[in-house]
Amino acid sequence: MGFRFSRRVSILPGLKLNLSGSGVSLSAGVRGAHINLGPRGLYGSASIPGTGLSYRQRLDSSSRSYDRPSVERRPSARQWEALQRRQEQEEKAQEAQQAIDDRWEHYQQMLHFWKSLPEIPSLENSIQAQTQRSFESTQQPPPEPVWPEEETKCLNELTESVKSQAPYRLLPALFAQNHAKTLFPSVWQQRQPEIQQRYQESLAEYEQQLKAAQAEWEARETERAA
């Protein structure tokens, strides 16, 4: 049995200096509650006098500790076997979970494969789609000649032509207009067939383009319906 040394010295009321073989510490408090500051840190303790019940807890957050370090023990053979069995069980559980996830994903793909397929049309939509649509042209036919406007235009052009000739350049415009009216019947007799011919040529070209556009439309409609 070894000898131990300890002594408690009162410094101030409620504050004591503790001397022992493990070092020097300070304690403060009243009966049933104390705070101790020593080499091992700051501790608080509380007790119920006369019952023998007490509670002690470290109060500082310092990681410094003077407790005797624990000696690491090597696991025994039985513990190693138990650890290996646990690892094997965890691996098997992970493999089983992965297999379940794969099967579930495959099941979901089989269950919802139809969602990516095109929508099946109804009978009404099918009949409507197979019916060829009528051709509607966006081209406009050439306008027909407005003969009063064409006569006025021809007379104005003839008047300007007479004004540019001598001696009408020196005379008032009324003389050129009267002379143009005199010449208008013969000029108009030649101009009218020309205007009519240009209109017929424009109309024939329009009908040819319309026919080609209609043939192209019908070919596309036939291919679409098929």
Structural summary, described in words:
- With 226 residues, the chain is of the alpha+beta class.
- The protein has three domains: 7-58; 77-113; 136-225, no CATH class.
- 50% of the residues lie in helices and 18% in strands.
- Helix 3 (147-163) crosses helix 4.
- The chain is elongated.
- The model is unreliable at 63-67 (pLDDT under 50).
Write out the strand line-up for the largest beta sheet, numbering strands in chain order: 1-2-3-4-5-6
Strand content: 15-25%
Rg from alpha-carbon coordinates: 59 Å
- What is the string of helix and strand elements? EEEEEEHHHH
The chain-level structural class is alpha+beta
- Form type: elongated
- Major sheet size, sense and barrel closure: 6 strands, antiparallel
Domains, number: 3
Q: How far apart are the first and last residues' alpha carbons, in Å? A: 112 Å
The percentage helix is: 40-55%
Number of helical runs?
A: 4
What is the mean predicted local confidence, pLDDT? 83
Overall number of strands: 6
